[in-house]
Amino acid sequence: MKKYAVVLCIALAATLALAGSPRMGYINSDRIIRETGMVQDAKQELQSFSAQKEREATEMQQEMQELQQQLEQQQLMLSEERQQEMMTTLQQKYAEYQEFLQQHFGQTGSIAQKNEELMEPIMEEINKAVQQISEEDAYDFIFDSTVGLIYGDPSYDITDKIISILNAGN
């Protein structure tokens, strides 16, 4: 997909170059985020949220381990029926644990959702700054080097301008 986007951008740039010389620039959004310090509060909130989920997962693990130890220690004294009940309980707890991990630590889990929720306003601020620079300096295109720019002449890098605008606003 990125390959097609790059080819499309090159084709578009070549077409526009024939029609006139468009003004282009690029940014490095990772560097902007890192150097403006915009994510500190969001990062701290996400770490706190993630740590809580990790504690909950650890508690679930400990509960399963205790049940497993109890089963092993009392195996000779328990009836076959009681052993089966404990094994079923252990299997249910394991299934709940796996579901918990998927719900919170999976690719679309609550931690990933929380990260998106926290990053959305930050990305909106970056986009506003990019829009401002594009209007002030008459850029036709601004690319993000973190999502598909193979090469960019450093003279077209406007990352420092974006960082300056964002830092001035904070």
UniProtKB/TrEMBL annotation:
Superkingdom, natural source: Bacteria
SUPFAM superfamilies on file: OmpH-like
PANTHER family associated with the record: CHAPERONE PROTEIN SKP (PTHR35089:SF1)
Coiled-coil annotated spans: 39-84
Signal peptide from the UniProt entry: 1-19
Protein name: OmpH family outer membrane protein
Lineage: Bacteria, Pseudomonadati, Fibrobacterota, Chitinivibrionia, Chitinivibrionales
A single GO BP: protein stabilization
Similarity annotation: Belongs to the Skp family.
Keywords: Coiled coil, Signal
Pfam families: OmpH (PF03938)
This protein's record includes keyword Signal: yes
Gene Ontology MF terms: unfolded protein binding
Keyword Coiled coil: yes
GO CC terms of this entry: cytosol
